[in-house]
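I'll show a typical protein example:
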Amino acid sequence: MSHKALIQRYLDCWQSGAVADFAAILAPDFIDHSHPDWKPGPAGLQANAAAFQRAFSDVRCVVGQMIEEGDRVAFQAEIQATHTGRFGPFAPTDKRVTYGGIEIARIVDGRIVELWGAANLLDWVQQLGAQRQLLAAPPDA
């Protein structure tokens, strides 16, 4: 499988909610550098993807551009979904939201080993109508 096809399969897992399928495409020592608090390995991403699937329905992943060089693939992706369940501190809004970002994946032996990403989280929070909730939160001590 080409590196680009592997990334498409990764995004298909997010779209379909096939959380268990991440185990076949992520290396046992997979780490998502964008989420250092997640447990390493496929289990960490699976747990967080399952939480996302419980909070959002009608998920659609749209790939913009993909650039492959050596063992890395950079890709632009957008996730569109309906916010139908609680997600962290955010109560369901039933709003259709769009979450976009750019990711870089390192691939070894046909599996994603590392992932780095940047996303427009402020825009996403504003779509959820939750910016007041965040601004009212007390600062960390």
The longest helix spans residues 3-16.
